[in-house]
Amino acid sequence: MDVYARNNVKVVGAGDGPLIVLAHGFGCDQQLWRLVVDRLKSEFRLLVIDHVGSGESDPASWDAQKYSSLTGYAADVVEIVHELDLHDVVFVGHSVASMIGALAVIAEPSRFAKLVMLTPSPRYIDDGDYRGGFSQSDIDELLESLELNYLGWSHAMAPVIMGTSDRPELEDELAETFCRNNPAHARVFARATFLSDNRNDLARIPVPTLVIECAQDAIAPRQVGAFVQERIPDSRLVTLDATGHCPQVSAPDATASAIAAFARST
Fold first, then answer.
1. Is the Cβ–Cβ distance between 107 and 99 less than 8 Å?
2. Pick the catalytic residue: 95, 121, 235, 250?
3. Annotated catalytic, 245?
4. Spelled out in words, what is the top-level CATH class assigned to the domain 3-264?
5. Does the annotation mark 217 as catalytic?
6. How confident is the model over 168-203, as pLDDT tens digits?
């Protein structure tokens, strides 16, 4: 399997800093990292990917059973670092890719130096004292809407996820990104994302971890960021003065600065 084609792997930048892998969240693709890439490429080498079923990944690699669980996506990340013989990787995952990265780091800790979790959530559904931000019925309705009309769901949810009503062009860009995905693949990824529960995996993360949250985020509220940071043994939390779930698009300067400072730190 050619992992370059399967995950649309691209390497950018010529800096001598650590290698940074950038992985996108549900419904997105690597293009949403472009503003952060522009700010980091002079100092770091950057490897950007599309998860199978998203962006310009290889359609022939799609396997509904494999990608019905986040472990399938994590297995791809592990295979990429092996096939390209990468070491001391700083893995940056946005949203659900934070948990994909966590699973990959747990599976193959010798290949990774650090983990950055950008607006992560280990579980979206409230559970007892845990507040994930959504009730079970909320998620059931979200998945039903996505199943019945993926394009309509994309246009309705993009403003909520981006959270930048003062910049509608960013909401439009996210909606267009959603709409580029194959609806059948997106439905499988959505269930893997919104029904996942990786809370018990947090304590197993073996590398230094940076948790980045936004001051206001409808998808991963601040209590979730605090929960994640408290349960990862070697971690720190940064709160960006930003609104929404995609600060790599809405606040690229602050996002890139936080990633760079953590990647440089010893």
1. no
2. 95
3. yes
4. alpha beta
5. yes
6. 999 999 999 998 999 999 999 999 999 999 999 999
